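#lab-general

N.A. 3:47 PM
ok so I finally got the sequence cleaned up, no stray characters, all 302 residues accounted for. can someone with queue access submit it? mine expired

B.Y. 3:52 PM
send it over

N.A. 3:53 PM
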Amino acid sequence: MVDDPHAGAGPAGPPWSQGELLRLMDVQSCGAGHYVAPAHGPTVRNVVEAGQMLGDAIVAAAKEVPRQRVVSASMIFTRVAAHDAPLDVDVEVLHSGRTYSTAQVRIRQHDTLRCAGTVLLDAGAPDLIRSAAPMPRVEPPEKLASLDIPGTEVDGRDMRVAGDGYSPDPGHVGPPELFVWTRYRDAPEAGHLHAALLAQSCAHWTVAAALRPHPGFGESMAHSAISTGITMATITFHDDADVTQWLLYSTRVVYAGRGHAQSEGRVHAADGRLMASYSVHAMVRAFRSADTAARTRAGTVL
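B.Y. 4:20 PM
back already:
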């Protein structure tokens, strides 16, 4: 996957698994408003995924305001973070109310800001009205093969792409959208950990979908021949999801140009309920000439 850095995990780092994802996102309190996310360890591509830091923010806010559930989280990723050092997650509750609370989250590494954003929390209420966008009509997961890309497997996670939509091949073209079924083997103990795992996957597909309509550009070129990365992600949770059940991520890129790509997405349960919606902004551009020269000297550009 374009936006999943699990490829090339080094032998010194733990293997990628559902348990490891939860360990990294289940941030631990280290004082008032301060949490720490542990390091994963050495990897070939030493870059923490945006979805993982979004999950960190969701868990930290949920622990800081335990009487309410996270409704929405939005983060801007200003600088990359590395897998081989822990992350400091600071939560400032800007407003604490009986109905809604608002928290600001900043994630730092080595005293340098990596990303920041806001989280909205809600005390909950019964339906007054209810309606939702319908689930797209795609093949059910039972009729699809698991997406097994060497180096990106996560033990305990199963992903299946509908419509033969995903391929790293630059010659494989199609509309700027991807439909991906995802489920996890084991149920997390807390609702905010279900939410974190759900959010972690929402940033995976925007770059791949943006490249689909353009012959000569494919996922295999990311981070080597073209510069890509997630710069902003927002997710809103509608119903409480169970990540051990199949969830359909529908990602459609609504704009690509000027070095940017913007997607809109929805997460539906297999029974058609809308569980969450999200938007992702990504960078998709050529390397600057100075960057290309440096990468060529380092032997990373063919």
